[in-house]
Amino acid sequence: MAGRFPLEGAGMDNLAFGAMAAGLLVAALALLWQTRRAAVQRSASRAAFFDGCKVLFSDGLKAIAPTGFPRISGRYKGQTFDLQAVPDTLTYRKLPALWVLVTLPAPMPVRASFDLMIRPGGVAPFSNFHSLPDQITPPDGFPADCAIRSDDPAHLPDEALLRRYLPLFQDARMKELVISPKGLRLVWLAEEANRGRYLFFRDAEMGRLALPASAIRPLLDSLLALQADLAAPMERSA
User: Fold this and answer.
1) Do 119 and 173 form a contact (C-beta atoms < 8 A)?
2) Bigger pLDDT: 94 or 186?
3) Residues 139-153: pLDDT tens digits?
4) Which of these, 38, 179, 213, 221, is most buried using a 10 Å CB contact count?
5) Mean pLDDT, all residues of the chain
6) What pLDDT, on a 0 to 100 scale, did the predictor assign at position 200?
7) pLDDT at residue number 12
8) Edge-to-edge strands of the sheet including 146-150?
């Protein structure tokens, strides 16, 4: 009888180990299911980021970028526009950001590229700002924290015309204005990562909510107005 107790103890240990292993397996499967479900939800919300803006456009096209965010194009008030959502998780010492690029890709009556950016950093995955060779001293009255670059300082747009669009930068989310022979662009901050989740968990997820059309419409109208202003001198001289 004395020899049976160790065997009974081993049986109890094996039973406890088996129960623990089963519990760990169930927990692992639950975590895997939650992770996959979160990934599916994240993909769906990212892909739908511009869905609220589709009402603005006719003849719209939509593609999904490798980031999972969409790129759409369509006609608004007779002109074709392009919208991109670009996540920026590389900026040092800043929260990850989600930028919206609103582009009017059409020939413009200018001979040089003009790029005004607020607080340019070392990395800007949404912009070619740093590739332009010449830095221009901003005129008096331009935003104090802006920088200007060009590929031909001798042929910048008229300063009086540019000043009419400086009020765009009263919106703290406005980041960049580009005027080039190939088109016009505004870059606008749609979202920043939640500070608490990012600092503690490195959670940089953005784009959970679709962007409303009311956020984009003023940017489209501003680019149309700028296009008309750029064309006005050409029309007067014709």
Assistant:
1) no
2) 186
3) 999 999 999 999 999
4) 179
5) 83
6) 45
7) 63
8) 58-64, 70-76, 79-88, 97-104, 183-192, 174-180, 114-118, 146-150, 134-136
* CB atoms inside a 10 Å sphere around CB 144: 7
What does the alpha-carbon distance between residue 163 and residue 140 come to, in Å, rounded to a whole number?
10
Structure tokens at 66: 């490798």
Half-sphere exposure of 179 (CA within 13 A, CB side): 28
Name the nearest CA neighbour of 95 among 121, 56, 132. 121
pLDDT number for residue 182: 97
Distance CA 120, CA 91 (A): 11
Contacts of 84 (CB under 8 A, 6+ apart): 65, 69, 71, 100, 101, 103, 126
The predicted pLDDT at position 33 comes to: 46
Element spanning 53, H or E: none
CA torsion 85→86→91→94, rounded to 10°? 20
Q: What's the distance, CA 52 to chain centroid?
A: 16
When pLDDT is averaged across residues 9-31 and rounded to a whole number, the result is 63
Cα gap 141→166, rounded to integer Å: 9
Structure tokens at 93: 């010492």
Q: Which of 139, 151, 160 is nearest to 110 (CA)?
A: 151
| CA nearest to 102, candidates 131, 138, 74, 142 | 74
**How far is the C-alpha of 202 from the C-alpha of 195, rounded, in Å?**
9
Record the tokens describing residue 149, joined without a space: 């670059």
Please report the pLDDT score of residue 35 as a whole number: 47
